[in-house]
């Protein structure tokens, strides 16, 4: 794993999977698009921010694009640190920030319709 | 001036690239132009503009050589 390090006793991984429903609507699949060069920059900035804020040694994140089926992984974040608490906290920070800042858009496809997630209040 | 749109912004404009004959001087002017010509932007939870791969404040000036992108509410993860 990219975050493996003999100095680290904790490796925390968050994997975000495609859920089969939103509220009471059945989701058929998702379609992701991105402004890729900026998305990569912003993801790196978020990981760098986490590396400054917590005593962690490594932080990486990866997001998939295009059509993803139910249960497929859309995003994976991995963090390692000498002790586990910092890795848990940093990992949660990274996914929370990613959802707010990274220019990636998710469209949910339902039976008989589709919707850009979070576009409207 | 060329402006690039993604996600729901692409659907509101009807295409991915928007060519503006009169270039807005800054981000705020661009937002005003978009809201005026495509009122559906008013329905969005947020409307941000990126200039050269970074979020730009309303007062940020715009130049012909900039890469200007409309960022509707993001929903990664």
> Biggest interface and which pair forms it?
A-B, 29 and 20 residues
Counted beta strands of chain A: 8
* Total of helices of chain B: 2
| Helix and strand composition category of chain A | alpha+beta
Enter the CATH topology name of chain A. Aldehyde Oxidoreductase, domain 3
Q: Termini of chain B, distance in Å?
A: 32 Å
CATH class type of chain A: Alpha Beta
Briefly note the structural class of the backbone of chain B: alpha+beta
Which runs of chain A of at least 5 residues are low in confidence (pLDDT < 50)? none
Briefly, what is this?
The complex is a heterodimer of chains A (121) and B (77). Chain A has 121 residues and is an alpha+beta fold.
Q: Tags for this entry?
A:
heterodimer, A: 121 residues, alpha+beta, Aldehyde Oxidoreductase, domain 3, five-stranded antiparallel sheet, 2 helices, 30% helix, 41% strand, B: 77 residues, five-stranded mixed sheet, 23% strand, globular
Task: Set down the secondary structure blueprint.
The complex is a heterodimer of chains A (121) and B (77).
Chain A lengths: L9 E8 L3 E2 L2 E10 L1 H18 L4 E6 L2 E4 L3 E9 L2 H18 L2 E7 L2 E4 L5
Antiparallel strand pairs in A: 1-6, 2-3, 3-5, 3-7, 4-6, 7-8
Helix pairs in contact in A: 1-2
Chain B lengths: L1 E4 L1 H7 L3 E3 L7 H11 L10 E4 L2 E3 L11 E4 L6
Parallel strand pairs in B: 1-5
Antiparallel strand pairs in B: 1-2, 3-4, 3-5
Structure characterization notes:
- The complex is a heterodimer of chains A (121) and B (77).
- Chain A has one domain (10-107): Aldehyde Oxidoreductase, domain 3, CATH 3.90.1170.40.
- Chain A is 30% helix and 41% strand.
- Chain A contains two helices and eight strands; from the N terminus they run βββαβββαββ.
- In chain A, the strands form two sheets. In chain A, strands 2, 3, 5, 7 and 8 form a five-stranded antiparallel beta sheet that branches.
- The longest helix of chain A is centred in the middle third of the chain and has 18 residues, at 36-53.
- The termini of chain A are far apart.
- Chain B has one domain (2-59).
- Chain B is 23% helix and 23% strand.
- The chains are: A alpha+beta (121), B alpha+beta (77).
- At the A-B interface, β3, α1, α2 and β7 of A face α1 of B.
């Amino acid at each position: 794993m990219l975050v493996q390090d003999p100095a680290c006793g904790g490796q925390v991984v968050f994997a975000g999977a495609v859920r089969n429903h939103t509220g009471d609507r059945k989701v058929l699949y998702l379609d992701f698009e991105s402004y890729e060069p900026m998305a990569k920059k912003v993801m790196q900035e978020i990981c760098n921010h986490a590396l400054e804020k917590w005593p962690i040694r490594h932080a990486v994140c990866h997001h998939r694009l295009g059509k993803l089926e139910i249960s497929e992984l859309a995003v994976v974040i991995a963090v390692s640190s000498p002790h586990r608490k910092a890795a848990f906290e940093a990992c949660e920070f990274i996914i929370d920030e990613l959802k707010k800042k990274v220019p990636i858009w998710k469209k949910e496809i339902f039976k008989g319709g589709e919707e850009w997630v979070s576009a409207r209040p | 001036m060329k402006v690039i749109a993604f996600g729901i912004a692409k659907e509101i404009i009807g295409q991915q690239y928007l060519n503006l004959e009169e270039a807005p001087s800054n981000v705020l002017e661009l937002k005003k132009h978009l809201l005026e010509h495509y009122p559906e932007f008013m329905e969005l939870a947020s409307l941000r503009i990126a200039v050269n791969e970074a979020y730009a404040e309303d007062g940020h000036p715009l130049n012909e050589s900039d890469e200007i992108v409309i960022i509707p509410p993001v929903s990664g993860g």
